[in-house]
Amino acid sequence: MSDKEYKKLLKQFHKLSDRHILVVETDMPSSDVQKVVILSDKIRKAGNELVGLMRKNYDQLMRTKKYRKLLKLYGSTKDKKKHRDLANQLNEMQKQYNVTWDHCRNAMIHIGKKYSIDAVFALTKAEDIWRGIEKCLYNNGKTIHFSKYGELPCIRAKQINRGISMSVKDNELKFKLKGNVFGIQVKDRFQTDEVCAVLEYLSRSEIINDKAINKFLDKAYCIDTYRPCYATLVPKFIRGKYRVYLHLTIEGKAKPKYD
Question: Which residues pair with 244 in a beta bridge?
Answer without folding.
Answer: 235
